[in-house]
Amino acid sequence: MNLKELSEILGLSQTTVSRALNGYPEVSEATRLRVQQMARENNYSPNARARGLATGRASAIGHVIPIGQRHEMVNPIFGDFIAGVGEVYAREGFDLIMSVVSAEEEMNAYSNLSARSSVDGVLLHAPLMTDPRIALLRDLKMPFVVHGRASNEEQPYSWLDVNNTSAFRRATNFLMDLGHTRVALVNGLETMDFAFRRREGYVAALTERGIGIDPDLMRSDEMTEDFGYHTAKEFLARDVAPSAFLAASMICAFGIRRAIEERGLAMGKDVSVVTFDDDLSYLANGQNVPIFTATRSSVRTAGVRLAEMLLRQIQNPNAPPETELLEAELIAGQSTGPYKD
Fold first, then answer.
1. pLDDT at 39 over 50
2. pLDDT of amino acid 47
3. Are 306 and 142 in contact (CB under 8 A)?
C-alpha cells in the first residue's frame, strides 16, 4: 500500500497522513493514533527516501565499528548490545547503519557519515580515558550518546554507564570477607575507561583494608578466554599463588576456570573467582544456581536505554545532555568459597 491509498482509506490528505506518521505537533493526538492504527492494519510502511525528504532526517542511526586483530563483532557482549539498540530502532522506525572500518579510518568514518547526512545520530562504543571521538562529534554537530564514559573529557555529553568502580570495590570486598588477601585482577585494556574504573575499585578496596597493592597480581588485555586462561595458569604456577581471581568478563572467567581445573584444583573450593556478568543471552551464567559469583548488569538493557536516550536527543537537539549511571548487583554463585590455607 502506498501513501495515496492509505490517505483515501482514511479520508485525509496525503500531507496530513504523512505528518501524522512523522510525529508533527500540528496533527492532533487522536488523528495521529487513528493514522498509525490504520497503517498497522494495512501493513503500510513509509518509503524511507520520501520520508527523509519530507522530514529532513535519514531515519537511521550510525554505529562505527573498528576492526582489529580481534573482531568486536563476534563478541557476544557486542551482539547483545546491538540486539538492545536494534529493538528500539525497529520500534521507532529507524534503521541501523553499521560502518565496519580499520582502526585508522574510524575518525574519517564519523566525518563521512556527517558529510553524507546518512544518519541522524551516532552511538559511540568503548570510550577511552581520553577519547578524541567525542570532540569530533561535537564539532560535527552530530547528535551522539556514549556507552560508557571518558574520564578526561571535561565538557558535558550524553552517556550511560555502569558504576564499574563500586562494582569492583564490592566484589573485592566480598572476596576479602571470605578471607582472601591475595586477589588477582584479570582486567580489560586499561586505556578503556571501564577497565580503568574497575581497577580503581579493586585498588580502593584493598587499600581500605590495609592490604598492599601488588602490581604483579594485575594483568590487563583484550577480554578473551585465552587471556584469562594464560594469566591464571601463570599466576597459579607461582610459589605464592593468588587464592582468588577477579575477572572483567565472563569470557575471561571461563579461561580462568580452565586453568584452575587443569592444575587439578576445584573452583570455589581451592580457588575463588568473581567476574563481571553482562547477563548475556548466549553465554548464561548457569540456570537456577549461577556458575560464577558475579557483579551483574545487563548489556542488552543498556542498549535499550541508550537508544532511547539518543532518539530523544534527535527529537530535541537543544535539550541538555542526559546521563545515567547503573548499579551492578552482586550475585553469589558456585565459584567462591572461604580461603583455604
1. yes
2. 60
3. no
